[in-house]
Amino acid sequence: MLAALWSASWADANLSCMPATPLLDELRAALGGTAVLTDPDLLRMHQRDEADLCAAGTPLVVVRPRDTAGVVAVVRAAARHGVPVVPQGARTGLAGAANAVDGAVVLSTSAMDAILEIDPVSRLAVVQPGVVNATLAGAVRREGLYYPPDPGSWESSTIGGNVATNAGGMCCVKYGVTTEYVLGLEVVLATGEVLRTGRRTAKGVAGYDLTRLFVGSEGTLGIITEVTLALRPAPEESLTLVAVFDSTADAGTAVAGIAAQGLSPSLLELLDRTHLEAIEAYQPMGLRTDAEALLLAAADTGPRAAEDLARLEKICEAAGASEVYVATDAVEAAALLQARRLAHPAMEAFAARSYPEGNGGLVIDDVAVPRGALAALLDGVARIAAECDVPIGVVGHAGDGNMHPNIVVDRADPASLERGRRAFDEIMRLGLELGGTCTGEHGVGLLKREWLAREIGPVGVRVHHAIKAALDPDGLFNPGKVL
Amino acid sequence: MLAALWSASWADANLSCMPATPLLDELRAALGGTAVLTDPDLLRMHQRDEADLCAAGTPLVVVRPRDTAGVVAVVRAAARHGVPVVPQGARTGLAGAANAVDGAVVLSTSAMDAILEIDPVSRLAVVQPGVVNATLAGAVRREGLYYPPDPGSWESSTIGGNVATNAGGMCCVKYGVTTEYVLGLEVVLATGEVLRTGRRTAKGVAGYDLTRLFVGSEGTLGIITEVTLALRPAPEESLTLVAVFDSTADAGTAVAGIAAQGLSPSLLELLDRTHLEAIEAYQPMGLRTDAEALLLAAADTGPRAAEDLARLEKICEAAGASEVYVATDAVEAAALLQARRLAHPAMEAFAARSYPEGNGGLVIDDVAVPRGALAALLDGVARIAAECDVPIGVVGHAGDGNMHPNIVVDRADPASLERGRRAFDEIMRLGLELGGTCTGEHGVGLLKREWLAREIGPVGVRVHHAIKAALDPDGLFNPGKVL
């Protein structure tokens, strides 16, 4: 099913010097020449996000408007010329949702990077879409506030991209994903009109929830030009533990036990042996590479944190942990978190080592199941790896039932690619069979379109098309994504 | 602006015995005769929700299907005959969203009242829409779980109605409103197709967020036939305090201080003197009727609750509270909560006493502003009450900035109605000027359509119509509501 996508995926089209066109002239007139990029190297740089093995075209131009009026001008010009618009943030996405299509206008929001307001009493921030997640998180922290969503890419990804993909992260097990924090949006529609959705209030039910319709729509319905975000009070310092398991299924059992006993850890992550080994090879951290799985948990419940951590420890031991280790200070806790954050680059490096000369590919998958089905998911992925004869490492947000089975393939070997593709499909199938979803936080983009259709069924697909047609009848925005 | 609505609103059309029609025959064949009600008294009973002064028509028939297949049969039959369908839960709404229109099929979900599943590990429940909020809350509490949304009507309102209106309540200041708990829906569309939205997982970003598009859409986009709800672990016992203020604005200042200091009370309610007096007259509770405002606050932070309550006490005193009283036990705390819960019936009784012979009308308004603007809202409402010369009591969810200014009018006196209408409009205008929304939790229904249009502007209105047209092109569902 995905064969066409996979086979065409890393053959970038040849880039050549683009001639001036009336559209380019209009864009330059509207934005100024420095915001309109046609240098082939820059076009190449803006072809794709971080999803491996997804098709990407060559844009006509990359534009970097500085404000909403600039975005309106770009959208209106592109619409006049019937040229599609592909919005991009920091291109850290993992589903190809930001990949260019041939001849498109890539609209980068990276120059719209102002924090417009932080209000500690109403606990909200108003930002342009190009603000980097870590920049915002730091700015609100200095006001005693907290913006929880922390995708793996948080040090480089933008709020606009986070909102467009409804990004998750490690804090989400307790604090929820991006959409829980989006109070309101400013969006440029395909007509060039500027729509304001939502509110600045804690509660509000005025009309349809357009805000959350745009959150996670991956740039297919409009261009986000401003975001109003709810903030929380800064959390307490957290205490952290590591539990070592000789079986991934036991780790899954521990996660189910933690949920069943009503605990709400502020972090509950799982790394399997493949990832532990990859991280140690990438940057030695003293991780137990003889373990089959490692659970990383934290509690930020203030005076109760030590008690909660003791309960977590007991549950892990009852589930069969061979060792449970409590971090003795914040430095040690930060090091454990850092190890978890290295999982993605470490696996990329592992794939590169496995198949040299740039042939090592990594398909970073993303599947979520109900918490009670986590052990079955982990068992199933191990079985699929064996049956399909491909290396698959598993890492992820165990407390949410949201795992990333990461598949290593040899791009130069069609048989390896075919085995990888089969494993990918089998994991998706397993996730749905377990009552799960084909994407917990990375989105649909190009990678999961077929599986989205399976998950939501023909009625769901029809309603998606009806909404897309209602908002973007000519298919101007990010064509080929999601649907 | 609202004059036509207000003047026509309590003149119920004459009811007469309805003749059998082909539509009624089809409905009886599909559902069985006992689920198809045409008795004039029953039709009259199903004309309206609890919103005063909103127009209501006379339905052709009230149907009470028992399952999704029954709902599909009703929708298909109504669509074939071009007869609108108005869904109803327990008719406790406060904006007229459930009011019948002449000749419509009223589809009551009250017979679809099964709790289908409670899963403590995945922390979710699956219910039919007719399950009463309190019934679900009790059932999950017995499993050590918690379903937070607690609208004032929670002992009689249904989950289907709560979802359709995105109901709020007192717990929301800490735990959020209904939409935060809706993981997925089953919805019957205007085509008669059955759409499943969302998921059973903690996280999920597969496709557009159709779930939250239907939440709060007040039955205008589809009929909700099943709801998958996220649950939380049961909270700790809470500690409660009451703070008495000689000025409502001081109480507002206290609320802003509580937010600014990063506290997250599990309850933060305000009652003004009008409500205190109304409650004491309705059911003597020993409330301080000489106070201008009373703040009711609770903390459920376990071992930290006493400390948090002490901080709340200090903030209230600094803001000028004349007395702060901490409930000494759970019984006393429950009594305070009960006093707050009586605010609505007590004000209804106050209105009835003010203008006897059934002429006392109460417009229960609903406005939300950013927390920092609460004091300005309270000041403004007092000014509007004086200027318009109508009694207005204010009660509500101060911690969310979501207040209910309740306007007492004499239905028999056009001048009183006109003054009430003017006060209503002035409050809406003030709320928007303060950066707020025309409805924090009661919804748009019939009561706020003009103000919704002002709040979201012409682009917002156009997008609403486009989405309505995409999902319900013939205007089958709940015509005249929201838009």
From TrEMBL, chains A, B:
Family classification: Belongs to the FAD-binding oxidoreductase/transferase type 4 family.
Gene3D superfamilies this protein is in? 3.30.465.10, 3.30.70.2740, Vanillyl-alcohol Oxidase, Chain A, domain 4
Q: Does the keyword ATP-binding apply?
A: no
What is the required cofactor set for this protein?
FAD
Q: What is this protein called?
A: Glycolate oxidase
- Name the residues that span the membrane: none
* Species the sequence originates in: Micromonospora inyonensis
Q: Which SUPFAM superfamilies match?
A: FAD-binding/transporter-associated domain-like, FAD-linked oxidases, C-terminal domain
Q: Which UniProt keywords apply?
A: FAD, Flavoprotein, Oxidoreductase
What phylogenetic lineage does the species belong to?
Bacteria, Bacillati, Actinomycetota, Actinomycetes, Micromonosporales
